[in-house]
Design a protein that fits this description.
Number of helices: 11
CATH superfamily of the largest domain: Tetrapyrrole methylase, N-terminal domain
Strand content: 5-15%
Number of domains: 3
Bound molecules: S-adenosylmethionine
Largest sheet: 6 strands, mixed
Shape: elongated
Radius of gyration: 25 Å
Helix content: 25-40%
Length: 375
Amino acid sequence: MESVKSAEPIDPVDPVEPKDPVEPVEPVEPPANAPDADTNAPDTNASDTDAPDADAANGAPTGERQEHQPPPEPRPATGGKAPDTAEPSGGTLYVVGTPIGNLEDLSPRSRRVLEQADCIACEDTRHSGLLLNRLGIRGRRLLSFHAHNEAARMPQLLEALASGEAVAVISDAGLPGIADPGEGLVAAARRNGHPVICIPGPCALTTALVSSGLPSGRFCFEGFLPARGGPRRERLGALAREERTLVFYEAPHRLVALLEDLLSQLGNRPLQVARELTKRHEQQVGPTVEAALAHFRATPPLGECTVVVGGAEPVSLCWDPIALGQELAALVAGGLSRREAARTLAERSGHSRRELYALLHAEPGTVPPDPEGDP
Ligand code: SAM
């Protein structure tokens, strides 16, 4: 893997710049103030601040409220189609993916939209202000938009769209709406008739999946599992028969616990842990749950991790009391009650919950009859 040089210190904050005129959509060269090619691997998620509940212009001192600029002349709306003349277009919500580590992953189109949007809704104005500064995008009006102020902020953003402003939404890193705020705003914009355009960008889920070597044609993204062991194992138990490749996000301090639960609930499946994707210390650890567990027990994980796990082998629908009994026993050993185990296996196998529950109580050595009536 090619490594990149370490990030340089954040540039000092510059004064607000005037808004650039809207350019026709043509391939554009990165502006002269774009970051150097060799300063492309900062940890964009390394925010050491709490999400402030304040508006800001990146370029203005942190947390300072910026006077709202007069609304711009409405630009022609696009009717929900990708614009072919000017972007960003007034009255449109742009969902913009930002780098998950490597600043060079910001596309020219994303850059233009962020440089020219009337305002940018972001989880943490300080974090995004620094990121935008690093990207050479300065003087934007930033509005905090996160789980704790979503309800209050939403009407303001919808009003901005209604008044003809081009609004961009970003998260701390990656795609908004993927384990990050964004989906509620997109749904509200659509309900209110505003065009929504996603400017595709980096996403840890897809980056980890396609580099894992595990089947990527069909997959199941579960985001973060519950932090507490019991609910996490229960969720994994419910996924044990999922045949598609599974993808999880996990915090580094919970990775070993997740791997232990994967082993107890799903067995020693094929697995890749993608750590620090797109960054200087990018690493893939596998090829199985046990191998990754041994590695991370010896070398505690640092940085950000996405876990990709092979799906279950297809289940035979025939009534095999020994195999079914073993699956039930594994579910119970994983923490489910007998009733929950029977219900879980019924959902996965198509067999009746009542018959599976009876199987759990069968005398060892006795083979219950096939409930579907096959000889
Ligand atoms: N919206 C983001 C996206 O599109 O990927 C995900 C945000 S979620 C709050 C953060 C989680 O994504 C991290 O805990 C980690 O599991 C995963 N992640 C983010 N950046 C990563 C990276 N560079 N390498 C591996 N996993 C990453």
